[in-house]
């Protein structure tokens, strides 16, 4: 994503997320952020058709390999089940987690950068 505050890694996901998406796009950005000091992650999800098993594995792997680097994660979505699950299980993710509606994308970017 362009136009994000300095130090924020952001992606807009749509459809199904594959292992290739994770390996080739998400993982390098998170590794770079972790090596710079901390991960501040913004994820915008307008529609979601799931994750391949390989993508789930990549997600778990990158999260645990850089456990101490995660600072904040902002999920921006209007998908009710995703907002609900993140609110219930966000405590299990490293760093702070907060959910924002799509209309508050700019507020999410400011929060995750703060």
How is this structure best described in words?
- Pfam families: SpoIIAA-like.
- This protein has a single domain, classed as Transcription Regulator spoIIAA (2-Layer Sandwich).
- It has a four-stranded parallel beta sheet, sandwiched between helices.
- The protein is α/β, with parallel strands linked by helices and 114 residues long.
- Helix 1 runs parallel beside helix 2 (53-65).
- Helix 3 links the parallel strand 3 and strand 4 (96-100).
- The chain is 44% helix and 32% strand.
- It has four helices and four strands.
Look at the structure and give the mean pLDDT: 81
Radius of gyration: 13 Å
Task: Report the count of strand segments.
Answer: 4
Q: How far is the N terminus from the C terminus?
A: 18 Å
- The total of helices stands at 4
Strand order in the sheet with the most strands: 1-2-3-4
Estimated share of beta-strand residues: 25-35%
Annotated CATH architecture? 2-Layer Sandwich
Tally of structural domains = 1
The biggest beta sheet, please? 4 strands, parallel
Helical percentage: 40-55%
Name of the CATH class = Alpha Beta
Alpha-beta content class: alpha/beta
According to CATH, the fold-level topology is Transcription Regulator spoIIAA
Q: Which sequence of SSEs, written as H and E, runs from N to C?
A: EHEHEHEH
Organism: Streptomyces mesophilus
Pfam families: SpoIIAA-like (PF11964)
Protein name: STAS/SEC14 domain-containing protein
